[in-house]
Amino acid sequence: MRKGSRLSSLVIYILMAMLVLALVGCGKQESSEGSEKSGSSNEAGESASEEISGFITAVGSTAMEPLVKAAADQFTSKNPKAQVVVQGGGSGTGLSQVFQGGADIGNSDVFAEEKEGIDASQLVDHKICVVGVACVVNPGVTVDSLTKQQLIDIFTAKITNWKEVGGPDQEIVVIHRPKGSGTRATFKKFALDGTEESDKGMEQESSGAVKKIVAETPGAISYLALSYVDETVKAMAIDGVAPTVEGITDGKYPVWAYQHMYTKGEPTGLTKAFLEYMLSPEVQDTLVTQMGYIPITQMKVERDAQGNVKPL
């Protein structure tokens, strides 16, 4: 073979080898890109699977209702695929509904052990915050403080006129809460020393309705969670101690209760996510204090289901 012919063959061989190498490199790049795309797809899938979504209901205490509704609005604005419906009805309703499976969360002012007809051992307690309960009167009432005995006598209809406790000659109009109300149970236990209220007077189911009637009715008296108390009603001191945050956290003012959110068994999914949000700094450090409730972390005393109080 001539020298020129051998040279031509060598050049062709080199060019073919370079072409093969280029094709192999391209294949590797495509494989790598495909792997990266696949990885991105998996990551997106994992992210989607972690997205908070679904529908739950929280039912019960009207004393808790404003806080839970406000927190639910914030939570669902951050998680648009989640729905949290908050309803009142009273603590008894909340505990019964969550126990029977009619609600995902039962909001309550009282321990589940205090509610008859349910097995509290099946419920899990999530203490969210503390609320004080104040005796409230129409702003026209000139009395500023009542003793426990005077309260007992008023709510059992033994005292029926404000002049009997140092006020004007005016009829006392008592506004009661239903027997299933957690606010009523708290007031009865810690303000009335367990004495049952008389049936005389009006009865209102919701805290909002109680506030409106007390504000508009001369001589009216009732009780409300501090989260509902504003300038339209007058909060009374009990035995000279005003219903303040400081008085409650120090254990000096006795009429307060934990705000419980009960679940039947350990929460999962959206229910768990919402309860974790209720205990987050965003809720505890802002909504809880702004709306008149007390964060658990501020309490210097604790109370058990029997009502026993001890320092923390």
How does this model look, in words?
- The protein has nine helices and 14 strands.
- It has helices at about 5-50, 65-80, 90-100, 150-155, 180-190, 205-215, 245-250, 270-280, 280-290; strands spanning about 55-60, 80-90, 105-110, 125-135, 145, 175, 200-205, 220-225, 235, 235-240, 255-265, 295, 300-305, 310.
- The strands form three sheets. Strands 1, 2, 3, 4, 6, 7, 8, 9, 11 and 12 form a ten-stranded mixed β-sheet that branches.
How are the elements arranged and paired?
Elements: H1 3-50, E1 54-60, H2 65-78, E2 82-89, H3 91-100, E3 105-108, E4 123-137, E5 145-146, H4 148-155, E6 173-176, H5 182-190, E7 202-203, H6 207-216, E8 220-225, E9 234-235, E10 237-238, H7 245-249, E11 256-264, H8 269-278, H9 281-290, E12 294-295, E13 301-303, E14 309-311
How many H/I helices? 9
Q: Averaged pLDDT, please?
A: 87
| CATH homologous superfamily classification of the largest domain | Periplasmic binding protein-like II
- Which spans of ≥5 residues are poorly predicted at pLDDT below 50? 1-8, 19-49
The CATH class designation of the largest domain is: Alpha Beta
CATH topology name of the largest domain: D-Maltodextrin-Binding Protein, domain 2
Biggest sheet, open or closed, and with what strands and sense? Answer: 10 strands, mixed
> What overall geometry do the principal axes of the alpha carbons give?
elongated
**Span of the ends, CA to CA:** 103 Å
Architecture per CATH nomenclature, i.e. the level-2 architecture of the largest domain: 3-Layer(aba) Sandwich
Strand content: 15-25%
Assembly annotation: single chain
Structural class: alpha/beta
Which value, in Å, is the CA radius of gyration? 32 Å
State the helical fraction.
25-40%
H/E topology pattern: HEHEHEEEHEHEHEEEHEHHEEE
Question: How many domains would you count in the coordinates?
Answer: 2
Number of strands: 14
